[in-house]
Each structure stands twice: as C-alpha cells, then as structure tokens.
Amino acid sequence: MKSLSLVAGLLAACAVTGASAQPINLTGTYRCIENCRDGYMGSPAFVTQNGTAVNLVTETGESYRAWPDWNAPDSRLWIDARDEGAVYSPDGMRIHFDDGRVWQRDIGPPVVLRRAPAVFLRR
Description:
The protein is an alpha+beta fold. It has one helix at about 1-20, and strands at about 30-35, 45-50, 55, 65-70, 75-80, 85-90, 95, 100-105. Residues about 10-20 have low confidence and may be disordered.
C-alpha cells in the first residue's frame, strides 16, 4: 500500500510538471535598456521564435541562433555562438543576458481613444 501511494504521487508530480510547462512566445521587438553597447541604449532588438529555435538580432544588428537551455528550458536560452545564456521573464517581457544586457519588450505607444462629441437632436 505504501509503494502504491508513492507511485501515485510520483505519477501525479510528473503529470503536473508536464502540464504546467506552457511555452512562451518571445517573438517581438525589444529595446536594450541596460548595459547596451556604447551609443545603443534604447535601440531596437528583434526576437523571432519558431518552435524551439530562436533567432536574435541584437541592438547592434548582429544575428544569433538560440535554443532553450537544457538546464532550465522553461526560463533560459542558450546562444552557442556567444557561449552565453539569457534568462527571460515568465511573461516574456524581459530578457536578461549573462553579460548584463537587458532587453525590454517594446509594446509601442499607448492607444488613445477619443470619443466623438455627443450630438443632441432637438425636435
């Protein structure tokens, strides 16, 4: 009976882990906001994700390929050409590289809605 409950608990833990691993879509435009190369503060950087393959274009225009890091595939990327990793936030709004650079997702300016003036009809 004890081993049965241990096996049931182990299966439940595996099922929860697999179900909670929701992939994040990192595709979008980002802005370099910290430790950018000289003169590139606020410059755009681009991420394109296709499945597990991720393409990065840095604020300086350099292109790199990245993949989920085998140590933490749900929160880290590995950029083999730079021998560097990056941690991304659970909501995909920030990417923090091991060298100290930080990219913030550029969501654009806020949308301003204007109301049409009310028109009153007199009878």
